[in-house]
Each structure stands twice: as C-alpha cells, then as structure tokens.
Design goal:
It is a single chain. This protein has about 325 residues and is an alpha/beta fold. It folds into 2 domains: about 170 residues, 3-Layer(aba) Sandwich (Rossmann fold), CATH 3.40.50.2020; about 150 residues, 3-Layer(aba) Sandwich (Rossmann fold). The protein has a 7-stranded mixed sheet, with helices on both faces. A 5-stranded parallel sheet has the order 1-4-5-6-7, sandwiched between helices. A hairpin with a 5-residue loop joins strand 2 and strand 3. Helix 3 crosses helix 4 and helix 5 crosses helix 6. The longest helix is centred in the first third of the chain and has 17 residues. The chain is globular, with a radius of gyration of 20 Å. This is ribose-phosphate diphosphokinase. One of its GO terms (molecular function) is ATP binding. It catalyses: D-ribose 5-phosphate + ATP = 5-phospho-alpha-D-ribose 1-diphosphate + AMP + H(+). InterPro entries: Pribosyltran_N, PRTase-like, PRTase_dom, Rib-P_diPkinase. It holds the Pfam family Pribosyltran_N.
Length: about 325
C-alpha cells in the first residue's frame, strides 16, 4: 500500500497514517509562476494499492478548484506509473451542494466532478458526510464509500446534555434524513427517547425564506445538525428560532467547518452555546485560532479515516464503519 496526503491536508493525513501505524509516503509538489503545477510520488507505485488524501475546501490561498485539479492530476500520475488501484480519500468533497437543477439551465456539478475522477482512472472515492448521500452514490460509476460521523458525535451529545431532554433538529428540509439517522443512533445508544424537529428554508438568488417550524424544543437541549457550516447563517437562523420557542441550550454540530466570510456572527451570538465540527478541513483549525473566544470544539477524524483505509486495503467489512446496518 502507498498513502499520500497532498499539501494542505498533511495534518489530517499524518493522523490517519498514525492510526494505520505507517508513515505518509513522500511526494513532490511544485507550483510554477504562471499558476500551473506538477506533483509526483517519490516512491514507486507500480503494482501498489494507492490512497491519496486531499480535502477540497478552499483555504490558505488554494481554491477548491486548485485542490481538485491537483488531486485529479496526482491520481492520474499514480495510474500512469503503474498503480494497481487508486483511491481518492476526500473528507470534504467540493461541489457536492449542486447535485440537481433547481433553476433553468443549472449545472449538475456533482455529476461533473464524478466524471472527472472517473476520467483519471480513479477506482474508488471515499468521502465524509457528503451534502446529499443519494446524489453522491448516483453520481459516481466507480466505487463510492461514504463515511458517517454519527458515532463520533453521539458520545459528545451525551456529555453536553446532562439531565435535559434532547432534541435533534435539522435547520432545513434537505437535512431531515441526516438528523433522523442521528436521532435513531442516539436512541439505540442511550435507550432514551430523543425529540426531533426541523425548520423550513428556501433559498432563491441568495435570499432565504420559510417560516415553518416543526417540533417541540421547549426546555430541551437542542442539537442542530448539518453536513457543513459555511457562513453560519443557516445554523444561526435555526438557533434563534429554537431559542424563541424555549430551548434551554442550543448546539450546532457539523462534519465540515468551512467558516467563510460572515461566520463571526455565529461565533459571537449568545443564541449558540457551542459549535462542534471535525478537522476534515483546515479552515476549522484556522477559525479556532482566529476566534480564540469562540465556543468551538474540533473532533479529530484521523482514526476514522485510517480505519476505513485499513478495511478497504484488507478487503474487510466496512458497513458498520460507514453507518450501514448489516
């Protein structure tokens, strides 16, 4: 096996490598003055099962486009140089939000990205808490593996809750299934009855509307669940609505903390008791540094990624790890 982590994803790659009890394999990346680049493995990949980790959220001067292009080219380079199999390990998969047409002549970018991976000869794509699980599976013709964070978040929810009743809440209709799965996982683990709720949200030309609120959150510890936090507007909108309806405490949990422009409003709002994300992208760690007073916790996913790679490499059963019942 060979395991590489591209520039910008080295810390997460190193954590996954430690979980595997191996070292990251060396590679070279060079950027040219005109914006082009080249990357190559510095060890032989011929006949090897190759894993390449790179998270595709833009940060640190590299856009999502830059990161996607570098990952695609590196995977193709490994295939060009005799790799028996290539797996893209992409904790945050860019362009997963645009998975269907909602306006005339819209792109379906999720499918286009899938076609790019397949054109590079990629055998398998592994990702974490993608925006739309069904769309992700349907977009790819190569093997797709979707890792689940429910088992990471469930113990933390138990610690934060105390004796309060718990409500799992989706900030929009599109995330209802994700929230329901977390609710079921918590009930199975704790034996407690867990409440559920969601809020209506429609976005058109960047204007958000929708007032429907379903669920009883009064006196509860409310956990607002989403796949990502970008500006934080969706989370904050839901948190304020829950507070208005009597929520005792409100927490935001998401796999990916992108924390783009405007996220400071989320960090500073008294409506939010705590925000919990994973270290799937660098921007989460940067936010922790940039907003030292923010009530932000970051859960590590290196062990989860490493265990997934181990099972895939040894052809073990991965169903429990990805959150699918046997």
């Amino acid at each position: 096996m060979r395991f590489f982590a591209l520039k910008g994803s080295e810390k997460l790659g190193a954590a996954a490598a430690r979980a595997l009890a191996i070292e990251l394999d060396p590679h070279e990346e060079r950027d040219f003055e005109d914006g082009e680049h080249k990357a190559r493995p510095l060890v032989s990949v011929r006949g090897k099962d190759v894993y390449v980790l790179h998270s595709l959220a833009g940060s640190g001067g590299a856009s999502a486009n830059d990161r996607l292009c570098k990952l695609l080219f590196f995977l193709a380079t490994c295939r060009e140089n005799g790799a028996a199999q290539t797996t893209a390990v992409v904790p945050y998969l860019a362009y997963a939000r645009k998975d269907r047409q909602t306006k005339a002549r819209d792109p379906v970018t999720t499918r286009y990205v899938a076609q790019l991976f397949e054109a590079m000869g990629t055998d398998r794509v592994v990702t974490l808490d993608v925006h739309n699980f069904a769309a992700f599976q349907n977009a790819f013709r190569c093997e797709s593996v979707h890792l689940d964070t429910r088992k990471l978040f469930a113990p933390l929810i138990g610690k934060l809750t105390g004796d309060l009743p718990v409500t799992i809440f989706s900030p929009d209709g599109g995330g209802v299934k994700r929230a329901q799965l977390l609710k079921e996982a918590l009930e199975a683990e704790t034996g407690r009855e867990i409440g559920f709720g969601f809020m209506e949200k429609r976005r058109s030309r960047n204007v958000v509307s929708g007032e429907l609120f379903a669920g009883d959150v009064s006196g509860s510890a409310v956990f607002i669940v989403d796949d990502m936090i970008s500006t934080g507007g969706t989370m904050l909108r839901a948190a304020l609505a829950c507070r208005e309806r009597g929520a005792k405490t409100v927490y935001a949990i998401a796999a990916h903390g992108l924390f783009g422009k405007g996220a400071d409003a989320l960090f500073e709002s008294p409506a939010m008791d705590r925000i919990v994300v994973t270290d799937s992208v660098d921007s989460a760690v940067l936010a922790k540094t940039g907003y030292p007073k923010a009530r932000l916790d970051i859960l590590p996913i290196g062990r989860l990624i490493g265990e997934a790679i181990r099972l895939l490499h040894t052809q073990g059963s991965i169903s429990e790890l990805v959150g699918i019942e046997g």
